[in-house]
Amino acid sequence: MGIIDERLAVIQPLNKFWHGNKVAALDMLRLDLLHPVVSGNKWFKLRLNMQHAVDKGYKAIVTPGGGWSNHLAATAFAAKAFGIRAIGVVRGKYNVLTPTLEACKANGMELVFVSQEDYNNKHEPGWARSLVAHFDEVFMIPEGGANEWGRKGAGLISRFINDTYTHIAVAVGTGTTMIGLRDKLNTHQQMLGFVPMKQGAYLEGYIRNHVQSERDRNWQLTDEWHFGGFGKWDKELLDFMNDFYVANQIPLDIVYTSKMMYGIREMLHRNSFSSHERILCIHSGGLQGNASVRELLCY
Predict the structure, then answer these.
(1) Contact call for residues 283 and 28 (beta carbons, < 8 A)
(2) What domains can you pick out in the chain, each with its CATH number?
(3) Distance (Å, whole) CA 101 – CA 88
(4) Which of 178, 218, 230, 250 could cross-link with 197 by S-S, CB 3.0 to 4.6 Å?
């Protein structure tokens, strides 16, 4: 399905003054350039899910997410492009829709709102189908595309990454992209996963359960730089994002890549890397999530 031109993704070296020449290379894979909505890893986690749903003749896809979910926004657009109905199960009640949910509606997604308590049951068998029982033949895509097709799709990102990089850094929400890449990349390459929520290291068990056993090495997670929790931020993080843009001309998102790059900078200051090492950071897109802080950013 040619709705995304994957040739738009480029690898951009970061300003050497930004990383102080402490490593041989610090580059960023600009998956955010793929598309303004279905950007970054979202496209890769969705493309095989959508194709599977179409190939199997499902009439609709249903997927859960929060009011600012990049996944919901990307799913709404992708479903429209694939010509399949989309239903979003949204955590919480909204008297006024967020810009993200407005975008979902504009792209034809039907929204079903549930309480936080109900949403916590999303991993229960048949949970989504019970909410959308009036729709026939629905295909469930888990939050963040965290299923077999999502992991395989995320693994396709490895095509952009050569073996000269010693470290691959990626932000981790569900672990889907981390798993897909670990299964495809050369196992001598160290993977660094940055989790943007409190106590996010719990995902280690989930990742280990899904990574191919022979590839379950040379990866680690850190949840040190969460800035108060998922979607939380403060002035220090905003200042960092603005400074990063001035130095590198790369916009970061408030939820994922900003916290990853802040962590990379702190690791550089701690001399966590050797001078000969080459690091590739994956920009996972999601810039639509900056809508709530747009006036505070210089881009």
Answers:
(1) yes
(2) 6-40+147-296 (3.40.50.1100), 41-145 (3.40.50.1100)
(3) 9
(4) 230
